[in-house]
């Protein structure tokens, strides 16, 4: 049941992201500043229709591809999985739960990636409201730092869960 809840949450986050990108893109100019230099100044442009299609493809495609490929690979009997105490966690009596935890973790990361990509899109939308378009680089760097810190925290929690053989007291 938990597996379906995690997958459903991922689908909801992706669907919400599609709506967010679609709705916020209507305020963009016909020629969108879509690439910015280190200083935040726009140095690349594309038509709004292409930008929206690209962002929708990127916000949907990258996380969905990551989650699907990883989930399918984890389900393969000969999958090479590197875990602390792997003999215990990948033993037949533990394997199903271990794979479920790893898949849920990948979906969690997929959700995080979708949110970060939507945040980057939002910064582009805001940048295009200025004349000339300018990306708030401090906001982008701040968002990137938060994304990396949360990712590292998730990896640390995942590794910690498998650090000791035996049932974990932490919820999945």
Number of strands: 2
The separation of the N and C termini measures: 12 Å
N to C succession of SSEs: HEEHHHH
Strand content: 5-15%
Main sheet properties? 2 strands, antiparallel
Count of individual helical segments: 5
Structural class: mainly alpha
Which word captures the global form?
Answer: elongated
Low-confidence stretches: none
**Overall mean confidence score, pLDDT:** 92
Specify the helix fraction band: 55-70%
Strand order of the largest sheet: 1-2
**Global Rg:** 19 Å
Topology:
Blueprint: H1 2-25, E1 31-36, E2 42-47, H2 48-75, H3 86-89, H4 92-127, H5 137-161
Antiparallel strand pairs: 1-2
Helix pairs in contact: 1-2, 1-4, 2-4, 4-5
Throw out a few tags for this protein.
172 residues; mainly alpha; two-stranded antiparallel sheet; 7% strand
Describe the structure.
The mean pLDDT is 92. The protein has helices at 2-25, 48-75, 86-89, 92-127, 137-161; strands at 31-36, 42-47. The two termini are 12 Å apart. The chain is mainly α. Helix 1 runs parallel beside helix 4, helix 2 packs antiparallel against helix 4 and helix 4 runs antiparallel to helix 5 (137-161). The radius of gyration is 19 Å and the shape is elongated. Helices cover 68% and strands 7% of the residues. Strands 1-2 form a two-stranded antiparallel sheet.
In short:
The protein is mainly alpha-helical and 172 residues long. It has helices at 2-25, 48-75, 86-89, 92-127, 137-161; strands at 31-36, 42-47.
């Amino acid at each position: 049941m938990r597996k379906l809840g995690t997958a459903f949450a991922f689908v909801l986050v992706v669907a919400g992201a599609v709506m967010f990108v679609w709705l916020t893109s209507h305020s963009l100019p016909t020629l969108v500043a879509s690439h910015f230099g280190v200083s935040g100044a726009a140095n690349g442009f594309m038509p709004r229709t292409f930008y929206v299609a690209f962002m929708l493809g990127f916000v949907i495609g990258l996380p969905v591809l990551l989650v699907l490929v990883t989930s399918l690979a984890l389900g393969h009997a000969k999958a090479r999985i590197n875990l602390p105490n792997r003999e215990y966690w990948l033993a037949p009596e533990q394997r199903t739960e271990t794979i479920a935890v790893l898949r849920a973790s990948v979906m969690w990361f997929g959700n995080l990636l979708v949110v970060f990509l939507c945040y980057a899109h939002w910064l582009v939308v805001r940048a295009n409201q200025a004349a000339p378009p300018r990306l708030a680089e401090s906001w982008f760097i701040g968002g990137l730092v938060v994304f990396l810190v949360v990712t590292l925290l998730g990896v640390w929690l995942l590794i910690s869960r498998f650090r000791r053989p035996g049932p974990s007291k932490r919820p999945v």
